[in-house]
Design goal:
The structure is a single chain. This protein is of the alpha+beta class. The protein has one domain (12-133): Small protein B (Small Protein B, Chain: A). The chain contains four helices and nine strands. The longest helix is centred in the C-terminal third of the chain and has 24 residues, at 134-157. It is globular, with a radius of gyration of 19 Å. It is found in: Cytoplasm. Residues 137-159 are annotated as: Disordered. Keywords: Cytoplasm, RNA-binding. This is SsrA-binding protein.
């Protein structure tokens, strides 16, 4: 009898939580990621990281830099496995044009915030973002704490 695979509980492969702390997220795009076979297998095992990853544009194409996908120990020996290699992002011409124009403006950048499964395909959520100053980060932290405190107060009053 064939073994059944465990159903994956979440479609998320990797998150870049630091991006939400360092940037104001203005617009989100869904991009396909061009990968090799060993990279897809590693993603299935959850060996991907998006921390400090960002997107650059060369020759009218989008490229993901800084994403780290660790090879599995069982990866074939005839593959050259580069965990930090640059991967091409698959976006429509309209989305690419919109992102390129926005990045040329001062203070805007494109960061990868999430990598997830959509069916059998690996997708990457890329966001158009604007950098935060340190006082903005503190304000965001204060707002988050205040919202948390409001929730506690509301729960306490409804008991």
């Amino acid at each position: 009898m064939a073994k059944k695979k465990k159903a994956q509980t979440s479609n998320t492969i990797a998150l870049n939580k630091k991006a939400r702390h360092d940037y104001f997220i203005e617009e989100k795009f869904e991009a396909g990621v061009e990968m090799q076979g060993w990279e897809v297998k590693s993603c299935r095992e959850g060996k991907a990281q998006l921390t400090d990853s960002y997107v650059i544009f060369k020759n009218g194409e989008a490229w993901l830099l800084g994403a780290n996908i660790q090879p599995l120990p069982s990866a074939s020996t005839h593959f050259v496995t580069e965990p930090d290699r640059t991967r091409r992002l698959l976006l429509t011409k309209r989305e690419l044009a919109k992102l390129i124009v926005a990045v040329e403006q001062k203070g805007h950048t494109v960061v990868a915030t999430a990598m997830y499964w959509k069916g059998h395909l690996v997708k990457c959520e890329v966001c158009l973002a604007k950098g935060k100053a340190s006082h903005d980060k503190r304000e965001t932290e204060r707002q988050r704490d205040w919202n948390r405190e409001k929730q506690r107060l509301m729960r306490a009053t409804h008991r």
